[in-house]
Amino acid sequence: MAKRVLKHIRIREKLMEEADRIGTDLLPSERDIAASFGVSRMTARKALDSLADDKLVRREVGKGTFLIREPRKTRVSVVILRGPREHPAMITRLAEEYMRRNPEVEVCLAECYGKNWYSEALESRGAKVLIHSRFGYLADMGALLPIDGLDGFSDVRAGVNRMYLEEHLGLDGKRHVFSLPLYYSPTILGYNRRYAKELGLNYESGPESWDELLEWAKVGARFDAASEYSVTEFSRSGRMPNSFYLTLTGGNHYLRKNGDAVEFDFSGGEEWFRLFSRISEIGGLSDYGTGKVSALVQGKSLFSCMVEPWIFRQAEGFGLRDDMAVCPVPPRERGQPSFAQINMWGCAMVRDENATDDEHEEAWKFMRFMTGDVEAQKIVCAALPGFSVMDELYLDQQKRPEWYPFVVAVAMGRVLGDFPIQHTINAVMIKYFQAVLFDGMDHAEAAQETSKICSTLAEIGSDIHALSGMQESKVT
Fold it and tell me: What are the DSSP calls for 202-220, one per residue?
């Protein structure tokens, strides 16, 4: 049988709920409570006495009964847009450590994955800190606040590698920094050392040219160790092996800035598409989507063209840590230099006119904590293996033998610029890249169509960006 709740206890809870709803500390008088709840004044008095006994109210003669509230905590909401599955746990751990040090602050997690993430994020109370990998288009839209004029920015800038502090056009027509880096990781090639050894391949150093990579694919295609086995894998979720393009072109990306203009140069596109078209024709190509575990770390694939330091952590979960090996992305010809795309995740402050100055200040402090505090950076790199943006921790990471290929990749790494039109261009490129891989489209035709469409988009993007900057300068 359910325990019966005394009437005056129910009334006291209703009184507190109503006070919170209308935003007042003053409670009704005994007479008003009795009339409102249809009870005697004795019951009404018991409700108020119960609150007083628990030290939840104070009584002032001639004024009334007032709720005693704890000081309202300053709230910061952390908004996560997609990203690695480890991000929510990582941010939760960071929030716990920050609140332990700052008990007057409340840091909450808000995961927004839909197209309406911005409006959803604004519904959260407090200032918003965004965790993302691309901030340029958001800065251009006016969705982010510039941080380079805030107190303490110069200290943060002195403690991190400046190549990871991006500048974008602000609403005042000037260039500003809108985000701080959290961690970064290069994309290189990973392979199963045990399978490579069994197949008589160069399992010590991995493939060292495109011809060797194709030979790996041919040999692997004849290896039928398991029904679910594949030679390599790609994802339909939108990632492309950009490190191969950078290596082919000597470190030049297909999308780059020239002043305020955006240029698309796909001169290496046909060769790039041809390599992966040949791998696809050989067979043994598997598709893994967002949220799925890589076939390589499950022991179901010979190699993967896009791995980051997370490979070792995930392989441990399958008991295959010792089977995993990584190497630089093979160049077209043996002996040529290898380059790598560096993926970077960071944090920025969402523009929110409803957040108070105190909340914005606390959000900025939390951003500085995540980027510039040693313990916070240890939490970041422990939760999701990647390189710390703090020089002192990065130097420690360099000493780990298994990280050596990634350290070399960082030295030859390229951080891709972030432009508003980039996301449309990437969508076009992904469409044609996947058409070559999965639908058998001719690689030359795909490269030609990609170049034609994306060059036009880059020109349009440059014109819109320039016009936007002129209009914003006039407005300000």
Answer: -TTT---SHHHHHHHHHHH
